[in-house]
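LAB NOTEBOOK - FOLDING QUEUE
OPERATOR: T.R.
BATCH SIZE: 2
PURPOSE: Compare the predicted structure-token outputs for two unrelated chains run back to back under identical settings.
PRIORITY: normal
REVIEWER: second-year student, initials M.K.

ITEM 1
FIELD SEQUENCE / FIELD STRUCTURE:
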Amino acid sequence: MNVGLIAIIAVLLVLILGSIAVRIQEARSRRLTEPLQTMTRMFGVLLLLGLVSRAMDALDGYGFLSRVLCANYPSVGSYGSYSPIHKIGVTGRPGVTVSINGTLQTCASHPTAGQRTLVVLTQLPQTLVWAAVLLLLWQLLRTASQTGPFTAQLAAGMRRLGWLIIVGTVAAAAVRGFAADQLVNSMLKDWSNYDDVFSAPMGALFPIPALAGAALLTFARIIGAGAVMDDEIKATV
């Protein structure tokens, strides 16, 4: 057999075996981060599909580009269902209809650019926080696959993710609450209420985001301590 042909076959075998070894290593690393890695991919795809759906709705004249924009103020429900509007002194601005059925609903027939912007601010912050959480989570899983479960890099990534969940949840809820209140305020005469700016962040933070963020910060400290101990053991060997 030709020596050149033998060399080519040998090189191909080395490449094939090397590729198989890499696949095996990747499979082992993937098992380390499952099922969270698959769930992260799934939620990432769902987030992208949701963004595409909202973009298509906006192009069709729905969402923040709708011809009529409506806003609800839930706390007015304490006045009772079907309460007369004049009883609580609520008057809509020109082009705004007001109704009460457990909650106060205002609808602007000719919304301004500012009101459309406020509608975007009631939805965008939470979406951005979710996207950032998924991105940091994906980076965290890659770090765990590449460096192992007990490293300073992994601890730092968990710390960043924990603070993002806590701070991001509060900030997004505050922005959403302010935008929602301001939207209602812009549609009513002599009405100024910003209760959601203070109540919405606490309602959004507790209990799940607060527990998830605290758990990540705690495990980050545990993993960081484990990484230091591992380095000390390696240094003494």
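ITEM 2
FIELD SEQUENCE / FIELD STRUCTURE:
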Amino acid sequence: MTRTLVTAAHILAGDAPREGPTAFLVADGTVTWVGDRAKRPRRKVDQTVELADAWVMPGFVDPHIHLSAYAVLPGWVDVSAARTVADLTGKLREGARRAPEGTWVVGWGFRELVTPFEKRLTRSDLDAALPDRPCLVVHSSFHSSVANSAALARVGFGRWTPRSPGGELERDRRGEPNGRAWERAHAVLEWAARRTELDVLGEGWSERVRATAGQLLAEGLTHVGDAAMSPRERDMAERAQLPIGVTAMTASGGGMLGRLDEVLDGPRTGEGTSSFRIGPVKLFADGGERCAMLLSYPVILRAFRGLATANTGLSNPIESLRVLRPRFDSHGVHTGTLHYRGPDLAGAMARASSRGFGTSDGPTALWEPLPIMRLAVERRTEEGLVIRPDQALTREEALRAATVTAAEAAGVGDEKGQIAPGKQADFVVLTGDPFDAETRVSQTWVSGRKVWGAEGPATTAEPAGPPDPTSGG
């Protein structure tokens, strides 16, 4: 057994993470003791990690991010800055010259609905630039897109494509698709593009995921929940043995909004290890810009009560919702919503959810956990506008939401999320107070091993001390 003593002036430990301890012991990747350094157990210590005036806190957990989506972005074109059709199509043409033969040309981060764009983009604009190759422009929400004619044809979308619940294929006056797709229709297009990217990348996809994991570790994330992994991506990610913990929420191989029964025959929620665990099925109650399902308040309230209390089997559409209850954890429904409209729904969610948690939904939005945690407390936009300060979190609530309850929502709360005896030794070293805007992550540790950091820890070997049978650790 290898024992490491970690010391620092500021250690945020427990539930919720609070200052007080100045040291903790790690044995074979697990925290065995937390307390005052002067009172540490008299056990042999193989090394001491002296962190002086640094701040140490549990590793951040993001239970809703899109790790597998980040893996395809290097092959796609960032069009977030485009404001004109000429600028947008110029970026796409350049991307087409770089993209391997057989892949789609995909622009991502399109902000037409957020920032001014010169016109309403349609298939004709994309056809003029790329007439012979599937091209897709994905909105920054990843819930809508614009496709050219070649992309529509590749997935079989045309005038006679029937309407389907949960999405919309927008049409012109003649009934022809104009290229704009929402929700389920968008998911069919996006995942077709992702599949071709996977075909070309092969095992190179795993290298991209490892690179993405390195970026997440650099920001202090030690465990993430991928909120929509196809079975193929899930299997590849598990084989990749990533340096970051992953909870995989399996989606249909045909699209993020595929049929529920297409994922229920796969691995069961809770299977796996703390390094790679099968998570819950992701439910959609509404869409990014257009509603995928419109229900009255009474129906929504009854649905949440059912999710929080039901444990019956699968027999009809209502039971299809209720059977997902064990796919969360024993606390019931978790919610990561930033802002609730309407006191009735907010109250129902608060009662159904055991404890709120922090999440990013990256790459659709800011994903770095330190600024997200500060925003939860300050509620201040980039423009300086303060939104609903009455819904701001306290510092303690924000710390807890980014670690303890986030780990619970990711299905690893028994093993991760705290610096506490019995928990996996996942922690981050910060240059200062986590709520100081100048504070940065200097080191990230997973299972008692430093996995990221420009500077090595100050370590000293300690001679073996006489064992104290009355002490832990």
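REVIEWER COMMENT (ITEM 2): The chain has 13 helices and 20 strands.
FOLLOW-UP: none requested
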